[in-house]
Structures are given as C-alpha cells and as structure tokens.
Amino acid sequence: MGGPPHVGGIGRAESMHKLLWKRGLVAAASGALLAMASVLPAAAAGGPPPAATALRVLANQHFANLADESINWGGYVVTSPGNTAVSGTWTVPKVVSPPEGGSGGGTAGSAAAIGIGGYNTADLIALGTEQDLGSGGSGGSGPTAAPVYYAWYELAPAAQTKISALTVHAGDVVHGAITMVGADSWKIFLKDLTTGAHFATTVTYSSSESSAEWLVADPSPVTAPESGSGGGPTTVSVLPLADFGTLSVSHALVREDGSTTSIGARTHLGVIMVSAGEGGSGGGGVPEVDLGPVTPSGSFTVTYIPPAD
Q1: Could you identify which of 35, 103, 115, 228 might form a hypothetical disulfide with 213, taking C-beta atoms 3.0 to 4.6 angstroms apart as the criterion?
Q2: CA-CA distance, 172 to 9, in Å (whole number)?
Q3: What confidence category does residue 65 fall into, taking pLDDT thresholds of 50, 70 and 90?
Q4: Cα separations (Å) of 250 from 35, 173, 174?
Q5: Banded pLDDT at 216 (limits 50, 70, 90)
Q6: Range 74-102 burial, b when 16+ CB lie within 10 A, else e
Q7: Can you say whether residue 265 is alpha, beta or left, with left for phi > 0 and alpha for psi between -120 and 50 degrees?
Q8: Mean of pLDDT over the chain
Q9: Under 8 Å CB-to-CB from 35, ≥6 apart: which residues?
Q10: Which residues of 219-248 are buried (b: 16+ CB within 10 A; e: fewer)?
Q11: 8 A C-beta contact, residue 182 and residue 99
C-alpha cells in the first residue's frame, strides 16, 4: 500500500472502514455528529432547523448513562433494526493542542458524526466533521500544530470521502442527514447553517439498517483483537484524542420503519470512550469523555475529559 495516506492533517495507516464503531472495545470510528435532510420538516422545506444548543461543560456524570465502552468513540446508539434515516445538528468544536511533552507530539484527532450500521456489523454509512491537529500537511506538527477542520462521509468498506466543496470552521453550526430514498439508495446531506453552504449527494449502498449513532470519535486506527485467527491482536497506534471541549448535539432524530422520532423517545445506549488498556483493549482504561443525558427533544452533550497529570 505504500506509506499511510494523509487526510487533512492526520496520517491514516488504515482506511476508515477499519474503524467501524463496534461494541466491546474492538474496531471503532471516524466521523462526526450529524443530521438528516428529508426527516426534519424544516430541512425538507428548505429552511434551517433551530441552532444547536450553546456549548457548556458538564460536571462528571459518573457515567450514569454508560451501557458500553470503546477505545475510540463515545456517544449514543439506537440498536433496534429498521433504521432508514438519522439526523442531527451540532456546532463544530474548536480543538486545542495537547500539553507540551504529551504523547503524539501535538498530533491528535477528533470527529463528530452520525451513522447507520457499524455497531457490531461490517456495514456503515456515516457523515461528519473532523477536527484534527495535523501531522504533516497544512496542520504542521509538534505541540503547537495548527488545527485542521473538514467535512466527510463514508461508505464502508471504502475509505472516507472528504467533502472538498464544503468548507467548515470551528464554531460553525452544521446540520447533517443520512436518508434512505429508495432501495439501496441514500441521500447524504450536510448544511453549514452559519455560512449557508451545503452539500448533497445520492449514493447506492446496501445497509443492514441495524443501528443509528450520534458520536464523537478519535478517528485514528486502533488495536483490535483478531478473533479466531490465532495470530494475536492487530496493533495500530491510537493517536491522542484532541481536546474538543464540549460538543452539543440537538435535533437527534431517527426514522425506524417509517416513523421519525427523537432519540429521546427511543431506547438508546450510551457508550463511553476510554483509553486503551493493557493489550490494546479498553479493560482498565480511563474515561476520556463524559456523556450528558438525552433530552426528550433529542439534545445531549459529549465532554472531553483531560488526562490526569
């Protein structure tokens, strides 16, 4: 394959399909927290949905919402089948460099995303914004590496596709959506409500429709066990999670079997991102994010937890 590709500022040793958000500390995610064009009446009418709630830092929730954990993503997931649309609105968070002398040499990654599938399945259709501190490229390197922001979508097992036609910045409010519009036909929609610019495309993809997710992820490769191979784990370094502050998500909606509801009206699981423990698993890992509770209207927060000194 040659050297690792550079997407934005972060060098990927594996394509994004290796990073599906899977339960139980195995392979995870790339991505961002998003939305859905045809599901939201305001979006369908051409107008923007209400802006995302203001950013705020939550006190430690003691992980009361915890149902699972992962070494590279945290957020909420609906696991009942028949999910044919997912949507959300969020503010692109500003990322800052890790402390000087920390691991990664100033290189760090974060992403906010929504997705359908990928939770214990090999299929995944996802959409999001990325907030990286780059290694190489325009982001530079070292503890003062400049942040890199961009939008993307992904159809596993293909690598993520950068949305070059849509430029996003820290502080922009964005609304995204993934919507089934026909048999194996999906509309991907992302609008920057701050600038008015938008992107839309229709793709052909066979999805299990098995789950819907809203999350923050460390988009770097992870160490994942090779079950049944006898060859031991496949080890790929995990970059530090970029300090993204607090991400606020609102209007998190999902369509199941033709009925559109808020995530707050559906049974949902919370997933806490933890640092990799011994052997690359999450066992013994330290929590890296805190989840706020989901409101009935579908709002919640994900807050970065700084590493202990």
Answers
A1: 115
A2: 20
A3: very low
A4: 9, 11, 11
A5: very high
A6: bbbbbbeeebbbbbbbbbbbbbebbeeee
A7: alpha
A8: 72
A9: 43, 49, 86, 87, 88, 89, 114, 127, 174, 175, 176, 177, 189, 190, 191, 251
A10: bbbbbbbeeeeeeeebebebbbbbbbbbbb
A11: no
Q: Going from the N-terminus, what domains does the chain have, and what CATH number goes with each?
A: 6-304 (2.60.120.700)
From 64, 127, 45, select the one nearest 90 (Cα to Cα).
Answer: 127
What is the length of the chain?
A: 309
Residue 280 is classified by DSSP as: G
| pLDDT of 296 strictly over 80 | yes
Please name the amino acid found at residue 267.
T
Which tokens belong to 50?
Answer: 């209400």
Report how far residue 123's alpha carbon sits from residue 30's, in angstroms, rounded to the nearest whole number: 14
Question: Strands 269-273 and 66-70, how do they pair?
Answer: parallel
Strands 212-217 and 73-78: antiparallel
pTM for this model (two decimals): 0.74
Which of 150, 148, 151, 93 has the alpha carbon at shortest distance from 127? 151
Neighbour-count burial of 184, counting CB atoms closer than 10 A to its CB (0-12 exposed, 13-18 middle, 19+ buried): exposed
* Structure tokens, 15: 């394509």
Which one-letter amino acid corresponds to residue 229? S
Rounded to whole angstroms, the Cα distance separating 262 from 85 reads 12
Neighbouring C-beta atoms of residue 123, cutoff 10 Å: 18
